[in-house]
């Protein structure tokens, strides 16, 4: 957690255990999400707005959020960009990152639980789509994206490398600003005043 692969301090090893435990929880959540997504593929779609730009930005996100961190953890190629902080500072920042990782996973799980069969990995409306305003959606209009921002912050705190750390934020930023306005418009087109009223009450 104190930089890329070359670090081997006791603080790093201790924090790595916490990160591994959080990663296992994330994997369990992903399994649940995958099992939920399988029957959703059988529900007819009445509107799909997935653009080439969005697909390209998802590739960029996979680079910044997965492949660059993987390179950081498995090789020493990015060691030159490790944060030059004291062990105590690295341990503190890593601990904060671990706590935020738990919060991000919790928010991600809750948002998908509240969505149920309304969840979709892309911009599309199903024949059974309903407007969800309960649970976490009562106060947060886009909790899935909120959890995404938290995860990108966690990446910067746990990887502690000036290349791999911020890579997630840099990759997520354009996708967020391209996709969210189009998603908002799609919801307005299908739910009209009901969504407009809901959006006015949430952040």
What is this structure, in a nutshell?
The protein contains five helices and two strands. The chain is mainly α.
How would you describe what is shown here?
There is one protein chain. The chain has helices spanning 10-40, 52-74, 87-115, 143-159, 164-201, and strands spanning 45-48, 124-126. The protein has 203 residues and is mostly helical. The chain has a two-stranded antiparallel ribbon with strand order 1-2. The longest helix has 38 residues, at 164-201.
Which tags fit this structure?
single chain, 203 residues, mainly alpha, two-stranded antiparallel sheet
Task: Please write out the topology.
Blueprint: H1 10-40, E1 45-48, H2 52-74, H3 87-115, E2 124-126, H4 143-159, H5 164-201
Antiparallel strand pairs: 1-2
Helix pairs in contact: 1-3, 2-5, 3-4, 4-5
- Beta content comes to under 5%
Low-pLDDT residue spans: 7-19
The H-and-E topology, N to C, reads as HEHHEHH
Q: Given the C-alpha coordinates, what overall shape results?
A: elongated
Distance between the termini: 33 Å
**Number of distinct beta strands:** 2
Characterize the main sheet. Answer: 2 strands, antiparallel
Largest beta sheet: what is the strand line-up?
A: 1-2
SS summary, helix count: 5
Radius of gyration, CA atoms, in whole angstroms: 19 Å
């Amino acid at each position: 957690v104190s930089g890329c692969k070359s670090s081997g301090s006791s603080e790093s090893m201790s924090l790595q255990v916490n990160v591994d435990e959080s990663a296992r929880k994330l994997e369990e959540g992903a399994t649940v999400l995958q099992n939920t997504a399988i029957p959703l593929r059988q529900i007819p779609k009445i509107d799909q707005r997935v653009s080439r730009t969005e697909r390209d930005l998802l590739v960029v996100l996979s680079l910044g959020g997965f492949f660059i961190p993987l390179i950081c953890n498995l090789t020493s190629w990015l060691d030159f960009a490790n944060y030059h902080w004291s062990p105590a500072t690295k341990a503190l920042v890593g601990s904060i990152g671990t706590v935020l990782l738990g919060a991000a996973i919790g928010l991600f799980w809750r948002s998908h639980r509240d969505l149920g069969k309304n969840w979709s990995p892309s911009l599309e409306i199903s024949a059974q789509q309903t407007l969800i305003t309960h649970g976490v959606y009562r106060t947060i209009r886009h909790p899935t994206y909120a959890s995404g921002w938290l995860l990108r912050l966690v990446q910067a705190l746990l990887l502690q490398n000036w290349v791999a750390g911020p890579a997630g934020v840099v990759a997520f930023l354009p996708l967020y600003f391209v996709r969210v306005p189009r998603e908002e418009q799609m919801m307005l087109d299908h739910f009209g005043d009901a969504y407009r009223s809901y959006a006015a009450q949430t952040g």
